Amino acid sequence: MMKREMKIARGYNSRTQGKVGLFAAQLDDQLTHLRKEVKDLTVKQLEWQLKPGMNTIGMLLAHLSLVEVWWIKIAPNEIPWEPEGKLLIQKICGIEDDGLPLSPDGAHPSYLKGFTADKYLRVLAKGRRSIHTELKQWQNKDLDKFFRDGKAHLSFAWTLYHVLEHFSGHFGQILLIKRMMRDCGLLDGKDK
Questions:
Q1: Taking the chain, what is the end-to-end CA distance rounded to the nearest angstrom?
Q2: Per mean pLDDT, which range of 34-38, 71-75, 88-92 is the poorest?
Q3: pLDDT tens, residue by residue, 62-78
Q4: pLDDT digit string (tens) for 8-21?
Q5: Which of 23, 61, 91, 109 would suit a FRET pair with 125, their CA atoms being 20 to 30 Å apart?
Q6: For the chain, which residues make up each domain, given as ranges?
Q7: Gyration radius of the chain's alpha carbons
Q8: Rounded to whole angstroms, what are the CA distances from 124 to 2, 78, 95, 147?
Q9: 42-183: CATH number
Q10: C-alpha angle 13/36/57, rounded to 5°?
Q11: Lowest-pLDDT range of 71-75, 85-89, 177-181
């Protein structure tokens, strides 16, 4: 019989950070699966679009890192987007934009051209280290607290949920793009 379990991420206190640490473990698990799916993609595949205006896998990888940093490190600390938030994202991720959303005739952005899978995965890893540093300051009791983002009042618990559902949704989009590439003959049929 197969046994499956999810334990809190290393470095989190099980008594005071069990919920936060479980979220961190879930997000890390998703990143592990994502790495396996994209690590062997070529630059051409990372920049491929079925048609103009559609996201590329590369754009989505950059987007995942930027969004994690925004929602975990910047928004809850109520740091304004301009200019401090943008500068912090660039410092943490090494990029300041992901190209999203694309215009209906938009192409893969020039500032992401030539990024390899390894480079995107390094951007994701750097952002992830940053949010782990931030999350290790959060306690379970903090999850009921709120912060302001514009006119919205958002809880720390909702923020954790949103980051995980956002990551999972775009991971699904990446898998769909890989399927479209395979259907177009641009990926080996062994890929899932």
A1: 25
A2: 88-92
A3: 999 999 999 999 999 99
A4: 999 999 999 999 99
A5: 109
A6: 42-183
A7: 17
A8: 31, 22, 11, 25
A9: 1.20.120.450
A10: 105
A11: 85-89
